[in-house]
Amino acid sequence: GMSQCNLGEPWRVQMNADIAAAAKAQPELQVVFKDAQNKTEDQQAQVREFISQGVDLIIISPKEAVPLTKPVEEAMAAKIPVIVLDRKIEGENYTCFIGGDNVLIGREAGKHLAKLLGNKGKIVELKGLETSTPAGERHKGFMEGIEGSSIEIVFSADCQWLEPNAQREMNSALSRFPEIDAVYAHNDPAAHGAYMAAKQDGKGREKTIKFIGIDALPHEGVKYVKEGILAATFQYPTGGKEAIDVALKVLKGEKVEKNIILGTRVFTKANAASGGEEIKASAAPQQKGKS
Ligand code: FRU
Fold it and tell me: Among positive and negative, which fits the CA dihedral 180, 112, 141, 40?
């Protein structure tokens, strides 16, 4: 059973497609997809339905961490292995977590923007849903990335990962702040929404503000970069294929790693046509005695 928190964003449609494609090559696997349509209660109910149906394994990409923790625990208690994909739950009571390194991505976005702006400027941060783990991690990493620069976040808002919310929040930012140098959006839909707000404002500010996003789907973020809408986007792999690889191992009784962290790539106008550039996980900042 695969419980997807929503299919509103192209990125999640891609995740399901990646799962379906990988599963198709495995005749002994049948994946039942459920879409929670961005409703936490529906997703809780879906996991419980999978438990009562007695599926062999659950894959979940949870909308929010805290409310989905208990249903996952119930599945584990019922001896149904659970693979958590992309967004996390609380604690460690799951079989395997697979996802991108959101702190690393945020940090790289921060460093990229600092370089682009010559270490100074006023920026708007359009965050993802704060009760989902990638939003906090993308913010934390970003703050590390701009540390030591004179970059100032003048406006920030929880846009819940949704383009229309980002567009609305950007409208307020534009009317309140005559100087905005860049927008750091936690996903490409939000970056695009911000760009559209600036464009529709009619003062040409979309040409001077630099927009940065995350996800880098070929037909979304990477396309925006090629079109000159975004200055950069960072790949956030869906983990769909990896989830099926791990599911097969688990079902065969093989041991799997508890946490599988996927890499990322940066796409800019200069490298988008040639597939972006890999970011090494060793790009972590120097430890400064903090644990
Ligand atoms: C899709 C999405 C992606 C984002 C991910 C974070 O729902 O918002 O755009 O990268 O979820 O979990």
Answer: positive
Reply yes or no on whether the pLDDT at 178 is more than 60.
yes
Nearest Cα to Cα of residue 185 among 125, 273, 102: 125
- By C-alpha distance, which of 186, 180, 110 is closest to 149? 110
234: helix, strand or coil: strand
Q: Is the pLDDT of residue 285 over 70?
A: no
Residue % of the chain over a pLDDT of 70: 96
Position in ligand 1 atom list of the atom nearest CA 133: 12
CA of 288 to the centre of ligand 1 (A): 31
According to DSSP, the β-strands at 232-235 and 210-215 are parallel
Would the pTM of this model clear 0.85, i.e. be above it?
yes
Q: How does pLDDT run across 259-284, given as a tens digit for each residue?
A: 999 999 999 999 999 999 999 875 44
Average pLDDT over residues 221-246: 98
Helices 10-24, 240-251: crossing angle, 10 deg rounding: 40
List, as one string, the DSSP characters of 95-155.
SEEEEE-HHHHHHHHHHHHHHHTTTEEEEEEEE--TTSHHHHHHHHHHHHHHTTSEEEEEE
Distances (CA, A) of 159 to 24, 169, 218, 233: 35, 8, 23, 18
Distance (Å, rounded) from C-alpha 103 to C-alpha 143? 10
- Mean pLDDT across the stretch 110-131? 98
- Judge if the beta carbon of residue 236 lies within 6 A of ligand 1: yes
Amino acid at 191: A
* Amino acid found at 53: Q
Decide: 12 in ligand 1 pocket, CB within 6 A. Answer: yes
What one-character-per-residue DSSP string does 153-164 give?
Answer: EEEEEE-TT-HH
